[in-house]
């Protein structure tokens, strides 16, 4: 009977094992499918949020995407329509490549690339045809040597020209296209008989691609680089104004309010000046592309785009001071809030006036009008005077009057640490035995004591430094002194910003300021000054 029970139990266990393995595999597959479906849902949601965010930040991106798709469809007709394909053949692919490479987000960038590509193709084709015409008059070996020498010399000269500053800035892409087209035509002409037909087909295909790109960029919802540069200058002024206001308010606010703001959103101070610090290459690129654009404004003025670059450089110098002001909020040693409260009102009023001036500058550039004669109001000077008076009314905070007591406290602190070190780490050489075992034991203990001493010194050094700094009686006012000096430096740098903006308005012929009417007709005349550096280059319209 025991055997039967054992056999039954064994049978039941075997059956359970055979059914359990597929069940386990099935459960694992279900778990994997659930994990995969969850990842796909998260990926889809993330992808949709990214698409929505990109379109919401700048709706012109959607328009540009549709323009590129339409251009590609139009040039694809050279392949899809039979009569057109018979005319161009496989050279029609050059039209597609031209659209992909040339069509950019702004009209200026498209003009720059399109004209560079067309000019490079024409020059390369003409020169390649001339080289081939001369080479065909020679024998086969001499022809090969002549073509190789021409490729070497022209390739070397064209590549070296790319290092010229003016060529690199304006025609670098055209030189690359010249090298590519010249080598393709010249080298292939050694094996292909009808080179002239190849040149014609590629030139016509590239011309069609460039024409479609220029038409879409200039006439169908055009996006101007000059407008982007203009609007980015306005945005940088507004960002700096918001950063200064938020920085001063945070300096005098309670820590609890600051923690709540940090948890709720990103730092508004950093967000305001970040775009200014990263704007150098963007401003130069937009100014270059804007110089290629035709005059599209209502009055067809030739705007000095390089002056916008100068305004951006002054704003970056201004932004460095704002960064230093922001750093005062994150220093290790801070002025007590009881001391800050004594200077809160003049500092906030001073920051408010600077913010007001920057916002007014941004508004004037946006409307293309001159600055108000009272942009630096009397309230700004009054706030500066009040801050100076408040600092002078607290001389003990900044000058100190208990130097002897401070010195004695520091000496006592140093003597206490010295006594502690002597008591804990002192070694009496008379107690050291002279036998070898005692000497080795003493040496081992000495090494251990030196390691302990070094560890304690490393741990004690920052504490001693902080004690030494905080023991200075005027240390509580030092952080605020730095904050106040940077605030005054911002006011001083504001004059340079106003000067550059006024120079921009004078050269660009902004309308005169009138507080009663925002839609004033232009009454200024172009000043008789030398603005050749700000003129459009000879290649522009």
Automatic annotation (TrEMBL):
One of its GO terms (cellular component) is membrane. It is a multi-pass membrane protein. The keyword Transmembrane helix applies. It holds the Pfam family ALMT. One of its GO terms (biological process) is monoatomic ion transmembrane transport. It is found in: Membrane. Belongs to the aromatic acid exporter (TC 2.A.85) family. This is Aluminum-activated malate transporter 12. It comes from Gossypium mustelinum (Cotton).
